[in-house]
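Why H+transporting two-sector ATPase delta/epsilon subunit? Reviewers of the renewal asked for a concrete example.
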Amino acid sequence: SRRGGTAWQGSARSVSVPLIDGELGVLPGRQPVLALLGRGGVRIETVEGESVTLEVAGGFCSVDQDVVTVAADRVDSEITGDDASDIDLVSEHVVATDSENLD
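Here is what the prediction returned.
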């Protein structure tokens, strides 16, 4: 386990983020929003069609100009391989949703 760092960064078709009062679905062109994170899975569908899930708890989510930034107090990655597990405490995750990559 380590402090800080980026658990995932890349281009995505869609991102779903758990908030304290529900779930936020983000597609390209989403209006800007700033919200408090709840506990649950950040689900990412990459432009390559892969699914990535990061379990988060606490922090915030920002959406602005097709960029989703999730700054979580705790993150547990479910990504397989590449030493991607057990990243926790004050981690930042950036997901770019680029509308040009949607078919």
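Residues 79-103 have pLDDT under 50 and may be disordered. This is the kind of structural detail the renewal will allow us to pursue systematically.
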